């Protein structure tokens, strides 16, 4: 989870309570903010144990009682999903602590870069024209990354969880423990751009579901994300689905349903 350049301002008073809960914690540093919440980088228990502090601020346009209930429900849901996945061996951030009343949750900091950044670094200097057959061997690292993505999604669905927002921005490439170097490839380092384990992040829209329809929609969202964000890698999406089938025994019915979801998507596009 690489920190981005974000305008800094004093964290809300409620977050200073984190220092009371954990006196060793570093002051929260804002790294990202959206409509529903803010992400801060801090530490947990030990100064060398970085973590993400996810804070859902009160919404002034909602009734206070309703807002408190929604915040509690959403943090609880996300924490339960993460715990379920973590116990099942799915690569997701561990949950360290949470405060349902104050509206924050501490989770593991994942080193590395997003899959989106890794793929873009890999494709960055490649020509826009379709590759010739002689270029296909060069795609081996990218194919391997696609397979790791498919296996990660298969592991997720096997636990009875659907992500709800599967994009390459919500996946991290975490350097393996036995790798050499700092563990954070430099932007533009094409040789190492696709190395590492795929870790799924941002479970704010995740739900517990065993529905083939929900799982197929998850895959369709990811497929469309590749089409819009990585059009030159879209032709290799088949490797994502192949690895998904290998990681998840019930994949056949999901992939059949995916065809239906694709058809509905095409109809909506035609109708505008």
From TrEMBL:
SUPFAM superfamilies assigned to the protein according to its UniProt record, in alphabetical order: Protein kinase-like (PK-like)
Matching Pfam families: Kdo
Gene Ontology biological-process entries: tRNA processing; tRNA threonylcarbamoyladenosine metabolic process
EC number: 2.7.11.1
GO molecular function, one term: hydrolase activity
Catalyzed reactions per annotation: L-threonyl-[protein] + ATP = O-phospho-L-threonyl-[protein] + ADP + H(+); L-seryl-[protein] + ATP = O-phospho-L-seryl-[protein] + ADP + H(+)
Residues annotated as transmembrane: none
Entry superkingdom: Eukaryota
Compartment(s) where it occurs, according to its Swiss-Prot or TrEMBL record: Chromosome, Telomere; Cytoplasm; Nucleus
Boundaries of every Protein kinase domain copy: 25-272
Any single Gene Ontology cellular-component annotation: cytosol
Keywords attached to this entry: Activator, ATP-binding, Chromosome, Cytoplasm, Hydrolase, Kinase, Nucleotide-binding, Nucleus, Phosphoprotein, Serine/threonine-protein kinase, Telomere, Transcription, Transcription regulation, Transferase, tRNA processing
Similarity annotation: Belongs to the protein kinase superfamily. BUD32 family.
Described purpose of this protein according to its UniProt entry: Component of the EKC/KEOPS complex that is required for the formation of a threonylcarbamoyl group on adenosine at position 37 (t(6)A37) in tRNAs that read codons beginning with adenine. The complex is probably involved in the transfer of the threonylcarbamoyl moiety of threonylcarbamoyl-AMP (TC-AMP) to the N6 group of A37. BUD32 has ATPase activity in the context of the EKC/KEOPS complex and likely plays a supporting role to the catalytic subunit KAE1. The EKC/KEOPS complex also promotes both telomere uncapping and telomere elongation.
Summary of subunit composition and partner proteins: Component of the EKC/KEOPS complex composed of at least BUD32, CGI121, GON7, KAE1 and PCC1; the whole complex dimerizes.
Protein name: EKC/KEOPS complex subunit BUD32
Source organism: Lasiosphaeria ovina
């Amino acid at each position: 989870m690489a920190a981005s350049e974000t305008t800094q301002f004093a964290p809300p008073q409620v977050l200073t309570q984190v220092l009371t809960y954990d006196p060793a914690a570093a002051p929260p540093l804002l790294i990202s903010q959206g409509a529903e919440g803010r992400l801060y980088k801090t530490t947990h228990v030990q100064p060398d144990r970085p973590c993400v502090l996810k804070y859902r601020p009160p919404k002034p346009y909602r009734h206070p009682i309703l807002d408190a209930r929604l915040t509690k429900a959403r943090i609880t849901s996300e924490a339960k999903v993460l715990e379920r996945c973590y116990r099942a061996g799915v690569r997701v951030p561990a949950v360290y602590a949470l405060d349902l009343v104050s509206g924050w949750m501490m989770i593991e900091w994942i080193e590395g870069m997003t899959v989106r950044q890794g793929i873009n670094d890999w494709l960055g200097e490649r020509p826009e024209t379709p590759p010739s057959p002689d270029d296909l061997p060069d795609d081996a690292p990218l194919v391997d990354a696609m397979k790791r993505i498919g296996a990660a999604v298969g592991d997720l669905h096997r636990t009875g969880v659907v992500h709800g927002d599967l994009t390459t921005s919500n996946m991290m490439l975490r350097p393996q423990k036995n790798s050499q170097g700092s563990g954070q490839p430099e932007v533009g380092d094409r040789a190492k751009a696709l190395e590492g384990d795929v870790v799924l992040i941002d479970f704010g829209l995740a739900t517990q579901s065993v529905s083939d329809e929900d799982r197929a929609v998850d895959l369709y969202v990811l497929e469309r994300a590749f089409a819009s964000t990585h059009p030159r890698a879209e032709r290799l999406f088949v490797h994502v689905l192949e690895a998904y089938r290998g990681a998840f025994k019930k994949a056949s019915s999901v992939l059949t349903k995916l065809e239906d979801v694709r058809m509905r998507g095409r109809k909506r596009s035609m109708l505008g």
